[in-house]
Amino acid sequence: MTDLLTGPRTVAQERRLVTEVPGPRSRELAARRAAAVTSAVGSVLPVYVERAAGGVVVDVDGNSFLDLGSGIAVTSVGHAAPEVVAAVQAQVAAFTHTCFMVGPYEGYVAVAEELDRLTPGDHEKRTALFNSGAEAVENAVKVARVATGRSAVVVFDHAYHGRTNLTMALTAKNKPYKHGFGPFAGEVYRVPMSYPYRDEPGMTGEQAAARAISLIETQIGAENVAAVLIEPVQGEGGFVVPAPGFLPALTEWCRRSGAVFIADEVQTGFCRTGAWFAAEHEQVVPDLVATAKGIAGGLPLAGLTGRAELMDAVHTGGLGGTYGGNPVACAAALATIRTMRDQDLNGAARAIEATMLPRLRALQERTGVVGDVRGRGAMLAVELVRPGTNEPDAALTNAVSRACHAEGVITLTAGTFGNVLRFLPPLVIGQDLLTEALDVLDAAFDAHAAAR
Length: 452
Ligand SMILES: *Cc1c(COP(=O)(O)O)cnc(C)c1O
Prior knowledge:
The protein is α/β, with parallel strands linked by helices. It has helices at residues 24-36, 70-73, 82-94, 106-118, 133-148, 165-170, 205-220, 246-257, 308-311, 327-342, 345-367, 394-406, 431-449; strands at residues 3-6, 9-12, 49-53, 56-59, 64-67, 125-130, 152-156, 188-191, 225-230, 260-264, 288-291, 302-307, 370-376, 379-384, 409-410, 412-414, 420-423.
């Protein structure tokens, strides 16, 4: 067992429950929360966090949880990664904010250089930094509209792009993201995604792309399309991996039609899928790439990177924001990227896939309630259905997830139908912890799936 040093304390890399879950201190905080925090914001876990390191989260009652969620694909580099902690501490002591639009600084430039280098394609690129994934996606649309002089944006079924007004319009699922919050931004058009588990059996990526393109051409008109926006592997929509050929066919159509191909790599980026960016798995080169989540080891930062002629088509002053590219977040990002390189976290993500996929497939064989096992790298999921059908079973999904929480493993759900268990472990989680977490998952299925 290794201990990771976090300031004056160590966090043992172990699962250990010392009280019931939630314990008394968490219950006390839950009561304070109910009186102070709006009920409109929910939480997955019933416990309150005191510290975290590596692959372990410790709650205020001293319970240690194995993390298969990474705060939604954010702490890919591990909780309290030592290099990130040190970089943040040094930057906080130097200066915390000047606003890049007032007093620029090197960290912002260095993060842009890294993004220009790391994102797919060896063309000339430029970057702008923001605070959140939604903001990066929203700015991608702004850039595409200015650069093309067109307004229509094409998005897909099951897509998730954020919770701001424009990104709500881009997001597919009504509840909880959009319900009652309209009217939404205009000129957003939704077409079918390639969803191999739910498409007609045998439908190829090219056929799924042709289905989408036919709708685009007949209902929008190619000459009106500013951008096609897609997650190369869908996140909140249920880790839907499109059939091979789907993404290349869409990029090819964009090239022919003068539309901007935007990859939303907010969840898939930064080693999550075993590559720096998920578009690489099919040699797809997006015109614009939106990044956030895993980029800065837990500090809020987002990026928009793309072809120089697109990014520079916007008038000076057209993009920005008070906190975008905050120096502390930039220092964290530089340390995160360095750590990812030094520790080969792409390799680590592929190793996680090699460990998890056979276990998840065995679960599928054994239980009869797993309709599909899918994902890439350390972004894996199981879709739960009623035995012998493909009818979504959201109740079982929630029951299994909650059973994992009660046994000290953090799991997340997803999917348009709420029936996907998704796994996003920190890439530094050790084999032993991963195996132990999978044992807990097995037991949770045994306890809850038998009755189905
Ligand atoms: C999380 C997410 C967003 C939104 O990011 P925020 O930082 O929450 O605004 C956008 N796109 C994808 C694919 C995401 O997973």
